[in-house]
Amino acid sequence: AMSIQVFAQKENSNTEPYPFGNPVIKHMYTADASPHVMPDGRVWMVTSVDLDEGGGYSTMHSYHTFSSADMRNWTDHGEVFSIEDIAPNENPKVDDYALWAPDMVYRNGKYYLYYPVHIRHRQDLQDNGRPKVTTYIAVAVSNSPDQKFTVLKDKIEGTRGIDPSIFVDDDDEVYLYWGSHWVAKLKDNMFELATEPVKLEYGEKNFMEAPWMHKRKGKYYFNYHTKYGKPVSKENPDNIDREKSRLDYSWGDSPMGPLSYGGILNYELGYGVNEGPKYMDYDYVPWRLTQSNHGGVVTYHGKDYLFYHTSALSSWRQDCFVEEGTWTQRSVCVDEIRYNEDGSVRPVQQTVS
Ligand code: FUB
């Protein structure tokens, strides 16, 4: 059985001791968790799947769903969708399909799985010699979140980009977010835009990907993966990217903006905000490098939980920390979000336990 070594932390902005057992999924690699409370009263998440052996983003070919009633113990409901479901007859020598960050929501008796279609056209090259890439959002449907989904609409017209996420407001309006902070309302049929897409104004210029909206006490919180940081190179292992896995948030009074910048939502394991090493002895923390992140927030029994991912598990297993494999051998983690009196967010430090 796999287990993760525990490194004691001196202090932490989250709950103590770490109640979630991060990463929460240890028998396989998962990323891009999208959590929602479903009618059975459990939290369900759909996740991307990274291969055991890694291999890069083009090897992401399926989604799993998981459910939990305590955020720590998760049931794996297995594969609910795969590349076979969208491109059964494709000749892989022509196009490469990949399944990146999805979302799954319940609506009017059915479950809807939003996924980005990501196609690399091997024979249609850009000027730089690399294959052209096409991306857009599509949706599949199922009667149950642990059953196979079938394609409902193979392209949602008006979308271009990756990372779809759904937010249902208290007035029952449904919003789809995707790509570079695009947002539009969805029609009742869940596969057509009801409004023209708009670029959400969020008060900063550090958006990279992974838009997600949640609401608390009438305020809208929009979180995203930032583009701060430098690349890590094998040749220069000291050139460590301190903020590659950082999530920020912006907030305001409308799900379509405008919003203003709020601050950091999630920062890398072991780092204090803007202060460099703080809690740990870095000679002994091999998993500090997380090459990506992707946030999802769910409110459950009155508390808000942030889902994110790290490379803690794969780094530990490989006993290495500048290994490209870990870029796509990621693991979903959960921590509670705490707020200040004025509603601003206390940054959540990534944990492992
Ligand atoms: O997991 C594949 C891609 O990496 C996602 O779509 C992005 O958000 C990033 O997590």
UniProtKB/TrEMBL annotation:
Keyword Metal-binding included in the entry's annotation: no
UniProt entry tagged with the keyword Hydrolase: yes
Keyword line: Glycosidase, Hydrolase, Signal
Assigned protein family: Belongs to the glycosyl hydrolase 43 family.
Name listed for the protein in its UniProt record: Family 43 glycosylhydrolase
